[in-house]
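Recall the central idea of this unit: under ordinary conditions, the amino acid sequence of a chain determines the structure it adopts. In this exercise we apply that idea directly, starting from the sequence alone.
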Amino acid sequence: MKIIHIVALALLAFANSLYAQVSDYPTRSIKILVPLAAGSGTDNAARYFGQQLAGLLGQSVVVENRPGANGMIAGTAVKNAPADGYTIFLGTLSPLGLNELVMKGPFPYDAVADFKPVSGLTRGMGAFVVPGNSPYKTLAELVAAAKASSRPFNVGTYATSYQLTLDWFNTISGVKFVGVPYKGAAPIFTDLIGNQLDWGVLNLSGVSTLLISGKLRAVAVTGDTRAPEFPDIPTVKESGYPEYSNYLWTSLYVRTETPDHITNKLAAALQQVLTSRQAQEYLVATGGGELMPFGPAQMRKMQLDEIERFREIIKTSGFKPE
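Accordingly, the structure predicted from this sequence is:
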């Protein structure tokens, strides 16, 4: 009987310990590692959602910027951190799958095997933008002019994903638009305003102020539907290319080995944040696109679908990994 009693006490102690692990997390501050510099739209979103998450979990959430290597510096830091839910990766398409398609390895981590999704955050559509004084008012006019021209039309892009979506548009439009790579959006704005570029592929929220001022004009947006803030701008889909749709998105991931009870607690808290009226108001105020309240399973499906979509774009466009 004494042995049974001891075993029972041991089991009870184990159960209490397990319960404490589930109920106590988090007991200290959480870090969100952002693969972009401070001040970017992605960084601002991380800080907002981190603050809301802190309010629900009762612990501070600190945002750390780890830019560089197409997001892989931040991703590597998360992979090398303990799998305890205290280090979270704010991921985007490049470090979560695209890099392994467009770059030559070896890579510091496997974008699918080494991380598991907690929640989607936001997504934003792109825009096909011409100078404000451009003669082309529609995408059809732009394509027709490029087909009739004796010179190639130049297009400013500032991310590999945008270059690939331009390659995709080249394939379906039958026009060889020439992508001109830039290190950021701001110099594209300058060269468009100065008529040094025919058009650019840009993030809609990032260029919205210049569209409102009339210095630039969007002939199409890349979403499934028109942007609520710019209802007069048609989508690429409705402009004659029904298969074309593209978004930039952000999401939160942890190491794959992170216990499920921690991932589930984080996911539940984020769902509460993302479905709140305050989150919607924040996004409207910042022009940051739309909320993407995808749980772990839905976010994983989207990630895998995006990887396969870009794999096909690369195959048809002839893009060569660098």
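The chain has two domains: 29-123+248-317, 125-239.
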